[in-house]
Design a protein that fits this description.
With 221 residues, this protein is α+β, with helices and mostly antiparallel strands. 31% of the residues lie in helices and 20% in strands. It is built from 6 helices and 4 strands, in the order H-H-H-H-E-H-E-E-H-E. A 4-stranded antiparallel β-sheet has the order 2-3-1-4. A hairpin with a 2-residue loop joins strand 2 and strand 3. Helix 1 packs across helix 3. The radius of gyration is 20 Å and the shape is globular. It starts with 10 loop residues before the first helix and ends with a strand. One of its GO terms (cellular component) is cytosol.
């Protein structure tokens, strides 16, 4: 579980959030929840240098109009180790939690070394696991040219794309502005077989319907 360990708006807090989101699209699970909302609202802003946190921050911002409808329990900031003024976080209830990246009480150099060793060991363990097929859950935002674009026909064209290692999932229309809606569609890809860049180019090839394609979320499975 995420443990910021202080002020979420500090450099240290943002760095921890960025590291946590490096392999996740959301704070909990595979869809936006109240956990994403409470941490989003605690942030003043997120610099682009925190690549993963910035991507998540921008994505969650698009859910503000429907935030009260999102699932999940409304936890407190203290549940994620966030303190208002950068002080010490609330004590954790679960003493059995394991911190993959080491304790903050260690000197920075030692903590970084321990973190690198743990990540290296984890990567080696994953590499030795037999029969593992690396997959990713991807959410794409497909934007039309205008409000007169036939969104049903556009989705049919998108789903007509077939690639080895590609499976299409759920979709929905999300309001943008001036009556225009974008198609938000989920797909599962095998990383070694499907390039997201190539897939985006195939979708944009339907130039009578599609203006652009953006990756809204990317989650390793």
């Amino acid at each position: 579980m995420l443990n910021i360990g202080g002020d979420i708006n500090s450099d240290q807090g943002l760095k921890k959030l960025d590291e946590y989101l490096a392999t996740r699209s959301y704070i909990e699970g595979y869809i936006p929840t109240q956990s994403d909302i409470i941490l989003y609202e605690a942030l003043k802003s997120v610099s682009a240098k925190y690549e993963h946190a910035s991507r998540w921050y921008t994505h969650i911002k698009s859910y503000q109009s429907e935030k009260n409808k999102l699932p999940g329990l409304k936890k407190s900031l203290q549940d994620y180790g966030v303190s208002a003024g950068g002080g010490k976080p609330a004590a954790k209830d679960d003493d059995d939690d394991i911190d993959l990246f080491g304790s903050d009480e260690e000197p920075d150099e030692e903590a970084e070394k321990a973190r690198e060793e743990r990540l290296k060991a984890y990567a080696e363990k994953k590499a030795k696991k037999p029969g593992t097929i690396a997959k990713s859950n991807v959410v794409l935002d497909v934007k039309p040219w205008d409000d007169e674009t036939d969104m049903k026909a556009m989705e049919q064209n998108v789903r007509s794309i077939e690639m080895d290692g590609l499976k299409w999932g759920a979709s929905k229309l999300v309001p943008l502005a001036y009556g225009i809606k974008k198609l938000q569609i989920v797909c599962v890809v095998e990383d070694d077989k499907v390039s997201i860049e190539e897939l985006s180019e195939k979708i944009e090839a339907f130039e009578d319907f599609v203006q652009s394609v953006d990756v809204a979320a990317f989650q390793k499975i």
